[in-house]
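User: Could you check the structure of this?
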Amino acid sequence: MNKKHIVVIDDEEHILELIKYNLEANGFIVSTYTSVEAMQKSIGESPIDLILLDIMLPGMDGITALNIFRNHEQLGCVPVLLVSAKAEEIDKILGLELGADDYITKPFSVRELVARVKAILRRADRNEVPTKKTEEDHFLVHQDLKLDIESHLLTFKDEPIELTYKEFEILKLLMSNKGKVLTREVILDKVWGYDYYGETRTVDVHIRYLRAKFEAYGIGEYIETVRGVGYRFVKE
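Assistant: Sure, the predicted structure tokens are below.
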């Protein structure tokens, strides 16, 4: 199996050294940069399997960089783990809304960091396994709502609705299990790909944004809250 290439962007040299040492000790290839601008100059030199991105950086900050990465041809699907000394919930939510795969705050346990990295990469590997697809695998439809799995596109009466990566994955999971109640823990495990270290409220935040987008398009209450349990997509 080829070694995974991880890019780490952090302006603190001792943090870079700590992360690099421990990831390399676990069999990863690691490239380190003290700024996003420095990292951008090397894009294309070798494939990247995961990016560890600090939020508070000189020059371009991590949130701005994450937004750029998610719209970049080569980096759009590369998993991103945000790393920051800032623990405020707004930063965490914003990062997840922009498509980050996970979030960890300093000071962190090296063991926990490595575990998260491995878990994210396991999920990425599972998503790359080719399978024979049927027509039902390409689209999920409910009344005028259509989810194009191949194109990662949601439309309502043929009008596109922009979703973040996590919003799309949550909606796909719910629509694939119409009428079934999915707990927050199950949604976290299926969408984030492992036992999430954060709070299950992360799911509530994403559901709230999904509902707001539905409401803006006059879409009905398709996602129901089952108090004390989780969520389900209406069957009919």
